[in-house]
UniProtKB/TrEMBL annotation:
Pfam families the UniProt entry points to: FAD_binding_3
Ranges for domain FAD-binding: 2-363
Coiled coil region boundaries: none
Record keywords, A-Z: FAD, Flavoprotein, Monooxygenase, Oxidoreductase
Name of the protein in question: FAD-dependent monooxygenase
Keyword check for Flavoprotein: yes
Amino acid sequence: MRVGIIGAGIGGLTLAQALIAQNIEVIVFDRDLSAEETGGYRLHLSEDALASIREDLPENIEKLLKLSGTGPESFQQFSILNHHGKTKLSFRQTDEEDLLMIGRIPLRKILAIDLEKVIRWDTQFTHYKEEESGITLHFSNAQSEKVDILVGADGVHSAVAKQLLGRSTAKYAGVMGIAGRALLTPQLGSTINKDFFKGPGFAVGPKGIGMFITVHAPKTNNELIAGMDVLEDPYIVWSVAATDKTLRKSFRNLTSDQLEKEAYQLIRHWDESFLELINNSEKGRTAAFPFWYPSNLTRWKHSKITLIGDAIHPMPPTSGLGASTSILDAVNLAEKLVKHDDSSYALQAYQADMLKYAPKAVAEARPPLFWQRRFKNNFIRRFAMSVLLPCVSVVLKIKDSIKK
Ligand SMILES: Cc1cc2nc3c(=O)[nH]c(=O)nc-3n(C[C@H](O)[C@H](O)[C@H](O)COP(=O)(O)OP(=O)(O)OC[C@H]3O[C@@H](n4cnc5c(N)ncnc54)[C@H](O)[C@@H]3O)c2cc1C
């Protein structure tokens, strides 16, 4: 069996590693020039995603990932702040004993270890043709390749999904984010709210504008990864998100500098510490991210072609589960392909499982966007910031002390 994977992103690389570990032949195609050719912000990998990596991928991968990122100590709490920079509520968001915060570039580079011979970079998939003898993949460089099974791991707006299902699998959520990162200098570290050193936070301001902030400070002195060029200097990720009605224009074709200016404009009346993050952003790294939901996450039928990750269930970053769910898909699909000789059965079994956990991950991303819309109403936002969240904070503190 020869499996063709379109997309060497988080899901595609995980799938390639899991299949090769079981001696299944794999070939992966990606339009990027290399693994590091990707936007770089910090991602959260859940306990379940890490367990899947531990069980099904070569042993060294989990170890290298953990050395390149940070663990539960960097996610002790999640904070909600007002736009003056004051914490209104902090709570423990997850009971996970194991989790990983890792930059997207190190994650991708480590997942691509030992795959040099099976990944074809700089190769854009255009369409496929089904034949008796298999599936022929076509690329924009006029090359083609024959495989027995085709997996679309090509992210939001998947070309494989469009041909397979005859429609897009992504529906715009009506919210756009502008995200950037600023190096964590002692000066910048001294200006931000100290709660950000205990975990990520979300600041809420007028007009339903929100700003997500997280400090990413991996240890940088481990010999095992020293030569791999995966260590990142500590940085602060910021992401300003607003609903379409609040935005002055579409961000789609703006440069990094222009996006920084737009983000600054959106929060120009906020506390100086937020503005400083934007002012200190690394040049050329600020990008716009429309938020997506799956357009119709239901069963489909095909005995040789399937979809994993954002290609079938894109989700807003508000649950922090997009990358983790694509890893679960990849490992789940690999296990089914190994277990069942009949590929048709294997693909249906994968789908049945995926359709149980993926909608739950999508559902977890919805409440923050719901509240962001509600907070456009000034009365609701002020009431929440001055009465509701402080009350919840007191109740949580009492509960905590009773527990102790
Ligand atoms: C601002 C923001 C913050 C996020 N934060 C988190 C977080 O904290 N935690 C989390 O778990 N997730 C987060 N996510 C989501 C996460 O990045 C994605 O969900 C995850 O990368 C999905 O993996 P994937 O393999 O499905 O797709 P991707 O990783 O996007 O990979 C798709 C790959 O396909 C390639 N490709 C696309 N089309 C073609 C083609 N035609 N031919 C060849 N190659 C092609 C692309 O180059 C890409 O490499 C965030 C997303 C955003 C926007």
